[in-house]
Design goal:
Residues 1-25 form the signal peptide. With 522 residues, the protein is an alpha+beta fold. It has 2 domains: 3-342 and 417-521, Amidase signature (AS) domain (Amidase signature (AS) enzymes, Alpha-Beta Complex); 345-406, no CATH class. It is built from 14 helices and 19 strands. The strands form 6 sheets. The protein has an 8-stranded mixed sheet, sandwiched between helices. The protein has a 3-stranded mixed sheet with strand order 3-5-4. A hairpin with a 5-residue loop joins strand 1 and strand 2. The longest helix is centred in the C-terminal third of the chain and has 21 residues, at 396-416. The radius of gyration is 22 Å and the shape is globular.
């Protein structure tokens, strides 16, 4: 797609969101001034400027806060700001650098936001729940502590659906987060606030959480990169302090992972280096050293391609994009296998649901859970509610059987990756769908090439990686005719995060240009 239709679409969206209309700069970028202010630059460029003294943390923070004042009211991505604490932290970062000539770490002085599902000491953390409306933690989530130890300046919190239990982002405390490209479309969920904030320059980096696409779906809909990290017996990124589970719990879902959201692959790598770490309890003896990519050029990779499937058909725009991706990879000299399938799509999805429903019941109230057990026992196996209730209340023996199925699924993927280095799939069946916050769940649906489909088909492709605990990266590529971003997904073997980031870098110059959110240049 040419830049001119994207520019026209971006101008229309900017007008609908009350933002300045962008113009074409001489270098072909969509911008209002022809230059990119530092606070809107990628994180690695901001960090370099901070570390070499070209700017101060306080100056960068104040520029970012001015951007918040103009952009966030129409977007509602950042729902809590603590400007006093952020300015104090920025000033301290500047003093430390001036005094010692050293940085605390790779994020020294870098302002960033944190998803409102991650407990943040001294800062209101609600997970969009009225029950937690006044919750101010005393302790950081482990991943937030890693950010601070690396020098990050935490500015505020980004919006989520109530208890992260929706794939669009709205809650009764803060309301709805708008998609940065079209206010009538969803930003996705549950990391809708983080993805929208990154897309619009309200932060250069975010940490999102992903159990069933919650990190990657919003990234795809908002046109940014996101990396779901590996999950084995322990996660690559520590998850303690993520809500849900309730505040104070030491455990989390056995499929939940945390991962970076950014506007460039390089920034994903920057944040991955910070947050890929053992839990504090394991740190004295454990370290996490993710393998470096074994290949240097795209043409050296053995690429699997899963472009469409009867289980979850994609629309015409996505089919066209997958064709262009295949052509680009072939032209780069890589071998492509578009026939082998690592797993059965339907069986994998069924296992995901059973395990997800089972783990979701851990924090249910005793009386409510007892009621669910009674209701599940009274249901026939073929009842429409049976999968949900019988999975939530399954006996430990049944869970052990499901976990055995999970290990067999992991083995099937591992076997596939003995002959393939990566697998490229669609990220979603379509671009961002209309927001349905005000629609009751049974009436929600998506439309794919004119056909009504299940609302939850949005995450089916993303969920392929989940039950096996595999890393997966969402890569923005191209757009629909009306300027909505499209994305592909790349799945890799267990612990291949660095390979996925490397492949995303290699693909960035070959794939169709993804649009930038109008607010990023406003």
């Amino acid at each position: 797609m040419s830049r001119r239709p994207l520019l026209a679409a971006s101008a229309a969206v900017a007008g609908s969101l009350g933002l300045p209309r962008p113009t074409a700069a001489a270098d072909g970028r969509t911008t209002t001034s022809g230059t990119r202010a530092l606070h809107l630059a990628p994180a690695h460029k901001q960090a370099a400027a901070l570390h070499n003294g070209r700017t101060s943390s306080r100056a960068l923070l104040d520029q970012l806060l001015e951007h918040h004042d103009r952009i966030n009211p129409a977007l509602n991505a950042v729902v809590t700001l603590d400007t006093d604490a952020a300015r104090a932290a920025a000033d301290e970062a500047d003093r430390y650098l001036a005094r010692t000539g050293r940085t605390l770490g790779p994020l020294h002085g870098l302002p960033m936001t944190v998803k409102d599902a991650l407990e943040t000491a001294g800062m209101r953390t609600t997970c969009g729940s009225t029950d937690l409306a006044d919750h101010v933690p005393d302790t950081d989530a482990d991943v937030v502590a890693l950010l601070r130890a690396a020098g990050a300046v935490i500015v505020g919190k980004t919006n989520v659906p109530t208890m992260c239990q929706d794939i669009q982002t709205s809650n009764p405390i803060f309301g709805k987060t708008n998609n940065p490209f079209d206010a009538e479309r969803t930003a996705g969920g549950s990391s809708g606030g983080p993805a929208a904030a990154v897309a619009t320059g309200l932060t250069s980096l975010e940490v999102g959480s992903d159990l069933a696409g919650s990190l990657r779906l919003p990234a795809a809909y908002c046109g940014v990169y996101a990396l779901r990290t590996s999950r084995g017996a322990s996660p690559v990124v520590p998850t303690r302090g993520h809500i849900p589970r309730p505040p104070g719990w030491l455990t989390s879902s056995d499929m939940l992972t945390l991962g970076p959201i950014a506007r460039t692959p390089a920034d994903l790598g920057l944040l991955l280096d910070v947050i890929a770490a053992p839990s504090p309890a394991d740190a004295p003896a454990w370290s996490i050293r993710l393998p470096e990519p074994a290949r240097h050029r795209l043409g050296q990779y053995r690429v699997g391609l899963w472009a469409d499937d009867d289980f979850c058909r994609v629309d015409g725009d996505m089919r066209t994009l997958m064709g262009r991706v295949a052509a680009a990879v072939r032209n780069a000299g890589a071998s492509i296998d578009d026939s082998a399938r690592p797993v059965d799509f339907a069986a994998s999805n069924d296992l995901l649901l059973r395990l997800m429903y089972a783990t979701s019941s851990a924090s249910a109230a005793d009386d409510a859970f007892a009621g669910e057990v009674a209701a599940a026992d009274a249901l026939a196996d073929d009842d429409p509610s049976a999968l949900y209730l019988k999975s939530r209340t399954m006996r430990h023996r049944n869970w052990a059987r499901a976990d055995e199925d999970r290990q067999k699924l992991r083995a099937a993927w591992a076997d596939y990756f003995t002959t393939h280095d990566i697998l490229i799939t669609p990220a979603t069946p379509t671009a961002a769908v209309p927001d349905q916050t005000s629609v009751a769940l049974p009436q929600r649906h998506i439309t794919v090439d004119g056909e009504k489909r299940s609302f939850f088909d949005q995450t089916s492709w993303l969920n392929l990686a989940v039950p096996a605990g595999l890393p997966s990266i969402v890569v923005p590529a191209g757009a629909t005719a009306d300027g909505l971003p499209l994305s592909v997904q790349i799945i890799g073997p267990y612990l291949s995060e660095r390979t996925l980031v490397h492949v995303a870098k290699l693909l960035a110059s070959l794939l169709p240009t993804a649009p930038e959110a109008p607010a990023l240049t406003a």
